[in-house]
Every structure is written in C-alpha cells, then in structure tokens.
Amino acid sequence: MPSLRSPQWIFLVNTAPVAAALLLCYGEYSVVHTLLPPVSVALWQKFGLAALLLGVGMAGYAGRQWVRQRPVGGWFCAVAALATSVLLCLLTWHGDGLLPFGVVPRWMVPTEPLLIGWTFLMPTLVHALLALVAKFTPDDRPQSALPNIAFAVLTPLGWIVAYQILSEIGHLAGSSGAYDGPSRWETLTTVLFVGTAVLSTLSFFFFLVRALFIMTGRREGFWVDTSLVWKLVITVGLPLLGLAVNNGLLFGHNSLLGEGLFGDFSSPWFYALAMLNGALLCLPDSSRPPLRLAQLLGRSALFGYTFYFFIVFLPFLPLSIPAIILIGTGFLLLAPTLLFVVHVRQLGADLAALRGIYSQKVVVGTLAAGLAALPVAVTADYWHDRRVLHAALAQVYTPDYARPMRIDAAGLAGTLAVIRQNQNQYRHSLLGTHLPYLSSYFNWLVLDNLMLSEDKLSNLERIFVGSRRPIRETWAETPGRPAELRDVHAESRYDARQQAWVSWVKLDVGNSELAGWNAEYRTTIQLPPGCWVSDYYLTIGQRQERGILAEKRAADWVFAQIVSENRDPGLLTYSGPNAIDLRVFPVTTTELRHTGIQLLHKEPCTLIIDGRTVALGDSTDVGPLVAPVATAGNGVVYLSALAKQALPLVQRRPYYHFLLDASAQSAGQQQALQQRVQAQLAQPLPHGGPARFSLVNAYTTPVPAGTDWAAQLNQARWEGGFYLGGAIRQVLFEAQEHPAPTYPVLVAVTDQIENAVLDADFADFSSAYPESDAFYVLGPDGQLVPHSLRRQSRQVMGAAPAAGVPVAVRAWPSAARPRAYLPDTNAAEVVLGQPQAVPTPTAAPNNPWLTGLLLRGYSQWQTFHPETTERERVPFIQASFRAGILTPFTSFLALENEAQKAALRRKQNETMNANAALDTQEKGDLRPTETPLDGGAALLLGAGVLLAVWQLRRLKTANAL
C-alpha cells in the first residue's frame, strides 16, 4: 500500500485514463458538434479544458516528484480527490446540456460523455483515497481500527441528517421570503446537499479503507485472532453473496436486485474462482520461500478476477451509501472494493517478504506472470472462438470451392451459444451486455465490433451443428405505410468521349394514404446488362442532396438509424446481380419527394419502374452496336444482343448430378435413398451422359467418377445439416470454371427438403446454367419436383420443362474452343475474357463506362471466387469510390446534415476493417447495435440518484406527518 504514493501511479491511473477519455469524447464531439447549440458547445469545451488541465497538472506534479524521487503528498491527494469529485458532479449536473434531448440522436453517440467521465475519472479518485490512507496510516506507528469503523458506519447517517436540515431551512427561508424565488433556493440546497454528499462519501471510503488497512497490517491483538473470520467474510462470503443476489438466487428474479442486474455472472466459473481466490488469500503465509513464491504466483494469477469486479463496480461506488440506506443488501456494492484492498495488501506483503530472499527479476517476473494469467487465458479463449467462427463464416459465405475446409463443430457450437446469449441479453440488462467489459472485448476480438444476424446464426447452427432451430421473424422492414410513384421521366444524352449514354431517371413519389402517416417509398429496378449507376440525389427540404457512395453495410446501418428518428435519408443499393433497390423516407401527405438516378449505358434501353416504362437513349442517334466491346487486354467483354446473336449455336448433353443427403437427420435412410436414385437412373435423360454424385451434409464430397456411389453413401459421415445451397454452388462453380459439352441437371435426394439449408436464390450464378434455371428434388414419392435457381428456390416451380430437354445455347468466343456458354436470348451479356485472371480495379481506364465494365467484370469473377473477398474487398470498394460507380459492395446514401455524414464515415471505418460476412444489424431492425462501453451504466447511475431522492422525500413527508 505505501507504494501507491509513488508518482508513477499518477501516469497509470490519471494521465492514461484522462487521455483516453479526451480521445473518446473528441470522437463523439467530432460527429455531433454541428448539431449542438452554442451553449452545449461551450460546455463541451469547458469540460474538455477542465479534464485536460486536471491531467496535465497531475502529470506535471508526478513528473516533478519522480525527478525529486519523492512520494506524492497528502495535500496533493486531497486536492486531487476533491477536484475529481467536483468535476464528476458538474459533469453529472450538466449531462443533459452536453447532449440535449431531441437535438442529438442517441445512435450517433454510442458512449455518452457522462459514462466516459465516470469510467475514466474514477481511477483517479480511488487512487487519491488509497494514497491518503497510505499517507496517514504508516506501518511503524500504532493505529486503531475501531474509530475508523465507527466513522465509516456513521457517515451514511450524514446524508439523511444533511437532507433534513437543509429541507427545514428551506421551508423556513421560503416562508420568510428571504429568497427571490424557489429556483435560487433549490439551487443552493442542491449545491449544499451535493457538497455534503461528496465530502461524506469521500470520508466514508477513507475511513472504511483505513480501517481495513489497519486490520490487514496488524500482527497482534484482536484483529489477528479474528483475521481468518473477517478474511473469509471479505474474500469468500461477500463475493459469493453478491453473485447470488445479482443472479437472483436469494430474492428471486423480480426483486430490485433481480437476475443479472450488473451482468450475467451465473457461470459456475465465477463461483469457483471466487472460492479459489478466497482460499488463496485466507491461506496462512508460508515460512518456506518456495511455497511463498508459489503463493505469490497463485494470488497474482487470481488478481485479475478481483480487479475485474473492482473495475465493474467502480462507477457505482458513489451509490453505495444511498444503496446502504435504501436497500439492505446495498453494502454488497462495497464488496469488490474491500476485496481489492485486501488483495493488494496481501500482494504487497508477499513482495516485501520475498524481495530479501529472491532477486528482483524472480519476484517481479513471478508477479508479472501471475497478473497476465487470466487476461491471457481469456484472450486465448476468445481468439480460439474467433478462428473457429471466422473459419465457419468463410466456409459458408466466402468459400474456396476448390479447397473446402473442415470446421470444429463442437467449438463452433459453443461460440455461437455465447454470441446468441450476448445478443439476446443486449436489450435486457442495465449494463447493456452479457458481461460488462468482457462482452465488449469479445465483440471486438471475435466479431470485429459488429454482430451476427439471426439468419446467419441459424444457418451456421443448421449446417455444422445439425440444429433445427426455426429462424425467428425479424422486425418489419418498412416503417409507416407505403408510398407510391407519382411521376417518372428521363433525360438522356450521348457522350461521344466514352461512347456511351448518360441518362438521368427522375422520380416523384408521394404518400398513398389520406392520413398523415410517414411512409417509405421502396422499389426494385432491373437494369439491363452494360448499365451502371454513376450518381444519385434526393431532394431534402429545399435543396438537392447528392448521394454519398459508401460501404454497403455502413450505409444500411446509418439509413436504418436515421429512419428510426423519422429523418430524411435516401438509399440506393444492389439487391441482385442486375437489380437496384431504391428507398426514400419519409414521404408525408404534405409533400412530393423528388429523387434521381444517373445511369451509364452502352446502348439505348428501357426500364420498368413500378409498372411504368421509361426509355433511355435514342437508337436513331447512334447506330446499332454489332461488335464486342472490351476493356484493356480483353479482360472483360461486353456483348450486345446483335454481337451475341452472331455467336454459334450448340447443344450440350445433360447429365444427372445427384446431391445425396448425408446429414445427421438422414442417418439410417441409405437404402431408401439408393432405391430412389436407382429408380430415377432407370429413366435416363435424352442423350444424357453418365450420372455424377455428391454426398452432402455440412460439406460437399464429390464421388469420383467410376466409384461405387452406393458404397460411398454407406460409408459417409452422417453429420451436420443438409447444406444444399453450398452443394449447388460448388457444382455450378465447376460448370462455370470448366466449360464442357455437357451440363449438370441438379437433383437433390432427401426426405426433408424443408430442413435443407438453401439460399433464397442463385441468380448471381446464372451464367453457370444457361440452358435452364431449374433444379429438382427427388422426394420420398420418387417424383422429380422442379424448383427455380433464379428466384424463390424453396418454392415449387409452377411450370418447368422436363429435365434434360435439349436447349440450344451460344458458344463464346467459338464452338471449337468455348470459354463460356450464353443463353440464346435477345439480352446483352458481360463475359470474362480472362477467367483465370483477376481484373484489377485500381487499373481502371479513364472512360467511365469502361470503368463500370471493369468493375462489373471483377464483381462477376468474385462471385465465383468468394475466397478472395477478404483480400480484394477493400481495394474493390476503394476503386468504386474513385470511379463513383455503384457496385454490390457499395451504396449511394443521401443524408440530411454533416453529423449524419460524420457518423457514416465512422461506421464505414469500422465495417471496412471487419469480416465481410459479419452484420451491422438484424434484417429490418431499426435499433442501434454498437456499444463500445457498457452504456446502460448511465441509466443505473441516474436510477440510483432518483431512487435516493425519492426515498429521502418519503422520509421528509413521514416526519412532517
């Protein structure tokens, strides 16, 4: 404890936290400052200056004492404690002024400055009190613990007495008219009461910690005789009691201290560590140096447990006195502090005893190794969770079809359970997370500060664990009522420089309801091949706001948060390979919203928007395009309809590719599946080739040609779920990568197609099935039931051609050496001239339309090579930004003010550095999802203060009666 007066501690408990607080607050202020009124801006500047002066002043004093090799003085500690207390009180008093309600949307400020202040300034306050205790309790002088205990016990009564006296004075002053108005007296009463509360709180902790310090330092007398008893109470009894109360084991789940009030500490590990920590602290100090060194290692290893709860409850220490007054178990708020003092005192005694026996390196090394034990263990556990989760995400959402990997299913199940528990408890805990700080650390290390949607959680569980958990219903995506298209018109001009058309499609939308509802306009527009989105605008108020091209997940998140505030955003994003989704909100009955989309297209074309046909370009101004158009080096080629019609027609031979259900749910069904397939093979496809087979569960295992497929099925590992979507994509990938004179007719063989994990559609793989978009399900009845690859894959197709009906397709560039097969339609096509080479987005030409063609080609290549996503995604997005052309990874977002734009930039930095398969929110969920710190703590602070005031008013009323 005397070492706490070392000036180095100032840098650790004040300089570093204050710097972190200033950086965090500056990050929040830089986003919202344009929304703040001048009074709030002044408050931010004043508090920032005060915190800066506090940090610089304390750091300067610490540096001076360090150079002089002298400890910090008692007066300095007292001034630091008072200054920090006053700053925290003023920060709490003006908390609403920093972020005025109704002015700054709370989603823009994930961590409020009030919580930042309490979190990062409390270490300074606690250290100043501990240093004061060390200053006035030297080990070489006799001290008595009883007077300090008495003062600590009597201090809570000072709150009640002070409130009663000030209330009576206020009553007399109000009746005599000594004050101009009630506001002056209320202000004076508040100041006096807060001052009394601050001084009494500081004195309470001073005397309490001093008494405990004296008791732990005694070597004889009453405290030594009863040391084991009170050590057991502080190190074992109070922690276990606190866990039981917090987890609802004593007072039930509906009490004031209900289940998980401060977090979910119900894991058996917390109870086990509490008992082990208490046992090590209560164990008598060994006289044998090796055993004492082992004790130091064990006690320091569990110091992380003590320190964790100390940090968790640190912001709530000011509530301990009103909690003791109002709630019988309120003293449990003090338990982590008492345990912390005992633990620090014991470690100090161990170090003092061992320094004379072992070298400084051995002692300090043992202490450092022990202190790192729990943090390293937690980090290693979380890092393992990260590796397992990200491997599973890669296998499902960014797979390498050529080299599939196996996943640790048991480890993944545990990781998904933790993620689900954290996300489910996010909105039900006052602290805002499953485990304070640890959940934030888990979210940062494992989830890159993002989340997993329920759809992806369920998919991963179904694929690798074999779970049949139903996918929960998400919140409705469209707030209010739908709006409608009132008018649409287009303006086109031909740009000779880039030899392409530049068109503006302008839409006027209005509310379709007579009532005054805020409606959202939403429509999907199918773009023809060779057409790119290059600009977007939305009229907000009286100005035309140009869309910002941003990373797609960040734009979706910001749009959802703005919609939840009933503000004015517009969003334009890809919802399919050639489909864009336009959203405008809000649309009221009193206004007509105007929005526009700029398109670059090589040829004249027509769009259909909400049933209205819009013509773009004029075929009479420019002659028809009959030759292919390619980027440099023929990397990506655009084939007009006329150019495609000039390609040779060929007919490929079909063959059955059976996808056999080898999941855990189909174990024991081998014979039935075999009989069904053999019956189908008895009805060969017209001019069909030899059938192929793949075993499908969590993985797709192709059966080598010429191998007995039935024997392979009998020897299969019946595990996981039926991941039919992955199997279809792998077969289509092979068909795309290796063009052949044959093509697969996909047949899924399963008894429970409803339990298959299947994509909503495979439209992005359409170039791999030019003959037909049908796949089939061979069910228990032995009938081939057609489903669509292009849309709504789970639904049965109403009308589909029989399997294997001859269909002619176009061979590109020639029938002799084809590199792709194209459907025989009148639509243009984009094909890759170099399918094995990655088009480089950074090498974009100056021609905007050709730049769009290059980006489209890369997007198409990346669809079949998702394993490159993590490596190539950010450069691809940056190329989209430079070109100003929309891609599947980006969105156009029209925003109302600079604060929204700053929030978008902050979110974009987060999503750009995160795994591409992670999410920013649930589908259709309009609630904020990020909490860098445990934001619910501010609610608890406010609730505690209000509860204290309410109870004291009750006492006043009772006394008056």
TrEMBL record:
List residues traversing the bilayer. 9-29, 41-62, 74-95, 115-133, 145-166, 191-216, 228-245, 265-284, 296-317, 323-342, 362-383
| Keywords for the protein's UniProt record, in alphabetical order | Membrane, Transmembrane, Transmembrane helix
InterPro entries, per this entry? MSEP-CTERM (IPR027550), PID_CTERM (IPR058207), VIT (IPR013694)
Domain VIT per the UniProt entry, residue ranges: 469-601
Protein name per Swiss-Prot or TrEMBL: MSEP-CTERM sorting domain-containing protein
Species this protein is from:
Hymenobacter ruricola
